[in-house]
Amino acid sequence: MIYTHIASLIKKGIEVKLIESADHIYVRNQVMHQLGLPSFPEHSPEVVDASIPDLLEKIIDWAVSEQVIENVLDEKEILSANIMNCFVARPSVIQRHFEEKYSQSPVAATDYFYELSKNSNYIQMNRIRKNIHFKADSAYGDLDITINLSKPEKDPEQIRREREMKQIVNYPKCLLCVENEGYNGRTGHPARANHRIIQVPLQGENWYLQYSPYVYYNEHSILLAEEHRNMKIDLAAFQRLLSFTEKFPHYFIGSNADLPIVGGSILSHDHYQAGRYEFAMTNAAHVKDVSLSGFPDVRASILKWPLSVIRLQGDDPEQLANAGEHILNAWKNHSDEAAAILAYTDGVRHNTITPIARRRGDKFELDLVLRNNRTTEKHPMGIFHPHADVHHIKKENIGLIEVMGLAVLPARLKEELAELKKFLLGEASDVATYHQEWADQLKQEYGTASDKATVDTIVEKELGKKFARVLEDAGVFKQTASGLAAFQRFIDAVNK
User: Fold this and answer.
1) What angle do CA 5, 9, 13 make, to 5 degrees?
2) Which of 64, 241, 404, 475 is least crowded, fewest Cβ atoms below 10 Å from its Cβ?
3) How far apart, in whole angstroms, are the C-alpha atoms of residue 36 and residue 23?
4) Confidence (pTM)
């Protein structure tokens, strides 16, 4: 069957325009080499209609059964990427096609690159489909809830190999470095042979566009700096974000904050995240408009959102960037003990911003989400971080994606919520200890559910409430009378 799988994969590669018919013998020989096959049947084998990820899985299963590779995660990932690399053109060709498409429209360019990234199995759609996703109504709009099941679990041998690694390889320096393009991979570093990136000049620097291999929303992309350098939120960052929306007006783009706790998972490489999706925060209502001294052409407003957001809107991206820098500088030094906000502790800065840029018709928008990473004995993980009573749902950092209203929740919840649902149905269950208080509260409020559809609705609704609470914990100024008064004190400080 291996020959059928190879022939079918090549046929599919032609169908999705990864390769042309004239390439089929070359590609076949390259795939055969990856699998250690010295020859191919003279008569064409049967071809089956299946997706590229499904065919790849069958080929990898065969390679394991024939001991071409060991049944270890990294070896399977490396072989899979190397097989698909036989179908993907060199970076210069991809770049040229992208620019040709861009001359038609920015949408045509990103459509081309997104489809390429999916068809080459760099974006792992089979795994992404395993994620549980639904929308939950909240006081702030429909929040997106995702239980992340897409990343493969490491097998015991993989874990053992990583533990016993002695040689420290510093290439590529991190998962976001440009040197990942075409990299074979190794134990502890993912295979990237089929990975391609697009050069996007911004503000006199080369930046590179790629898609996330585990997309959490439509066209979830990453824009990374050519230089391996730390994340930094400053005027230049605001300028780059707004400049990107000039080049790609159909994409939003945002940055994680540049401090621990309130930042993302990778602070060692300057990068942004973009995409073609409307989050709940995009359509958040305005609580009040505020004036900014020195920026009469910039409209500013406070949003009705669990985190504390100032939205700037205007026709001139440079004015928006300058207004953003003015607010950032004021926020870096703003303390308000009544609101538990201290700008510094022993010279260590706590205040920063999570920025998001987008186009709204002909207008430019820049959202500035105020963040503070101070800790106390009561809140050792952060005052403005999910508090202990919601850790049974999420205790990880609240990064850019969550800030905008998309919960990325841990895989453990799939089984744990199944037990919770049994409990609410009055069936025998094994509810996790840290969920028991929540389970009892739901049972008291709703009683015993009558059917599965009802209990599904209850749990999804209540999970949305929990995520809203997570976001409220992360907000420096709460959506209360005292919180909004503290927010106004900051606006007054900005205008001094």
Assistant:
1) 175
2) 64
3) 20
4) 0.94
Which tokens go with 74?
Answer: 């990294």
Which run of H or E residues covers position 96?
helix 91-104
Between CA 86 and CA 270 the distance in angstroms is 31
Q: Is 212 helix (H, G, I), strand (E, B) or coil?
A: coil
Cβ–Cβ < 8 Å for 475, 307: yes
pLDDT in tens, 287-334: 999 999 999 999 999 999 999 999 999 999 999 999 999 999 999 999
Candidates 53, 63, 256; CA nearest to 150 is: 53
Distances (CA, A) of 443 to 419, 423, 429, 437, 464: 13, 8, 13, 10, 17
The answer to whether residues 160 and 295 touch, using CB atoms and an 8 Å cutoff, is no
DSSP string, 430-477: ---GGGHHHHHHHHHHH-S-SSHHHHHHHHHHHHHHHHHHHHHHH-SS
CA dihedral sign, ordered 263, 135, 287, 382: negative
Number of CB atoms found within 10 A of residue 320's CB: 27
Q: How far apart are CA 326 and CA 292, in angstroms?
A: 10
Place of tokens 């783009």: 253
pLDDT of residue 156: 77
